[in-house]
Amino acid sequence: MSQIMNSYVDKFTESLNQTKLDSVVNTQLEESMRYSLLAGGKRIRPVLLLMTLSMLKTDINKGMETAKALEMIHTYSLIHDDLPAMDNDDYRRGMKTNHKIYGDATAILAGDALLTKAFELITKDTYIEADDKVKLIRLLSESAGHQGMVGGQVLDMESENKEISLDTLRKIHRYKTGALIRFSVVAACTIAKVNSKTFLLLDSFSQELGLIFQIKDDLLDIEGDFDKIGKSVGSDVANHKSTYVSLLGKTNTKVALEQHVNQALYLLEQLEDQYNTEELKSLTKLFANREN
């Protein structure tokens, strides 16, 4: 699977590197934007979008600009998450965080610029019809904003230093982490113009995948390796955050992870009469077994 995954990452990275972030006002802002955007990472969200398109028998180039827009929004969220007012992290992807290099103010503005650049990319996409551009912008706005990632982030912050229920934790993860993962899949469904049955199955699959990703993140925070995950281990405990591990214990968290993996694979099996789901099945297992 790693070879297949790498082929998608390589195609995406090649296209991302060609994206112009030139400045007309001659500031350091674009350097700050590129620093975080091109810092590597797993590129899971854009790869998931492109892989879903491939499964749906659609040219992945039709989703490339949307995939880049998605990565820009994900990157902006990481820049802001790392700030002293948020998680106060010094390292991301094994490198100094943006604000440690460029200062808090420039880091904030770099995130703002990446967020707005994302929507510009979709509007200029020559592969996508105008009606579908509007649908994608609406979906991405909802996924990234107060009804999605940002709303989940605030709920996460409000839950610090509190005892919260498992339902509240799932809600945090559904929006904070899961919203952009869901967008990866439903954006591909929108571009490929799938029928309602396929859309609903893949939508449900994407929500399972979001939970799998976050549950594994919670486990890595207590048993990960800095050299592999590229960021500090134990930050959830230090920030007094509730996680699956703190609420369920490590053993039961691993059981929950397996249950969500099985449900995700079951949903993909419902599509096997129409599509080859092997790549997405392998990606699901990779989410659950990753070391970073």
Summarize the structure in words.
By secondary structure, the chain is mainly α. It is built from 16 helices and 2 strands. It has helices at 2-17, 29-37, 44-55, 64-81, 98-102, 104-123, 130-144, 149-158, 166-176, 178-192, 196-223, 226-229, 235-238, 244-248, 250-269, 278-289, and strands spanning 91-92, 95-96. A two-stranded antiparallel sheet has the order 1-2. Strand 1 and strand 2 (95-96) form a beta hairpin. Keywords: Coiled coil, Isoprene biosynthesis, Magnesium, Metal-binding, Transferase. It catalyses: isopentenyl diphosphate + (2E)-geranyl diphosphate = (2E,6E)-farnesyl diphosphate + diphosphate. It comes from Mammaliicoccus sciuri (Staphylococcus sciuri). InterPro entries: Isoprenoid_synthase_dom_sf, Polyprenyl_synt, Polyprenyl_synt_CS, Prenyl_diphosphate_synthase.
Q: Uncertain segments of ≥5 residues (pLDDT<50)?
A: none
What class do helices, strands and sheet pairing give? mainly alpha
Radius of gyration: 18 Å
Helix content bin: 55-70%
Number of E-type strands: 2
How many helices in DSSP terms?
Answer: 16
In spatial order, strands of the major sheet run 1-2
Strand proportion: under 5%
Anisotropy-based shape: globular
- Average pLDDT reading: 92
Largest β-sheet summary: 2 strands, antiparallel
Distance N terminus to C terminus? 16 Å
- Taken in chain order, the helices and strands follow as HHHHEEHHHHHHHHHHHH
